């Protein structure tokens, strides 16, 4: 089947670009001398996670326990859950997941003594041990402890609690991933974790306090931390890229990031053309998320996309030299945010040289639990 024969709206990925992105990030991470633990909330597909591992990734990240269940069922062997969980139901699901897959490495991020005591108690009773990583505050003002005596106390509590083990620290500055300008982005990202690493180097020197894993960074900031003791980088969006990331700049220019190419796209159809300067496509907010801006029309930078609601996308055509759009004509959209756009679809179609060659179910779709 040709790409243009797909029914619309359809989510597809250019396999040549995706594979190039995978190779490029792994090579860059290798040069930095750290490990890559890609964040799979970007794609939610075990087969793509395995592609990342096959190219050298040490394991994966997931945002939610539900995503971890999907990845474990997909035979992924090393999983870090980057968001704390709370409540007996969630703790039991974590323990049950470990019991179902006893040979996998399943690491849970936490930031409080309540997490430690509850998970430890349930894990001990089940006869398993759950490795824990402590999230520290890194400028985002979200989850995470300050790097102070409270962090030391929590490490000591983990070390003295049966059913859990202390593995390390997560320091992730998600709010800085889209800072425009390569040098500025690296500067602010490094500044956000400076105090954390000073504390690690000066205070966590005893063997039972020293972290084995220090995890963080992302597609925007993975090159910001040279000389610091990160052991792994959690970049995720690089596999697909999107408009928001492409506009942050790279080491060569401030206006565009060409380290990775846009692989994830949406095929849409023109369904109405009521005015010469206005057309409508069948991709609204249920297809193209707008949380990071609006999508762009491939090969038509002069056409402006506007959300027309759940099911409609409005195209504003230039007043002069309007492109000739026909009802049923297929257009390709570049999403503004790959994670939330992918979450709108059940399937991802793999395309090479304009030919459909594979289809994946987005197995983690809806797994925000």
From TrEMBL:
Pfam families: Ala_racemase_N, D-ser_dehydrat. Residues 263-352 form the D-serine dehydratase-like domain. It comes from the Bacteria. CDD domains: PLPDE_III_LS_D-TA (cd06819). GO terms for biological process: D-serine catabolic process. Coiled coil: none annotated. The keyword Lyase applies. Keywords: Lyase. The keyword Ribosomal protein does not apply. InterPro entries: Ala_racemase_N, D-amino_acid_metab_enzyme, D-ser_dehydrat-like_dom, D-ser_dehydrat-like_sf, PLP-binding_barrel. One of its GO terms (molecular function) is D-serine ammonia-lyase activity. SUPFAM superfamilies: PLP-binding barrel (SSF51419). Belongs to the DSD1 family. This is Threonine aldolase. It comes from Veronia pacifica.
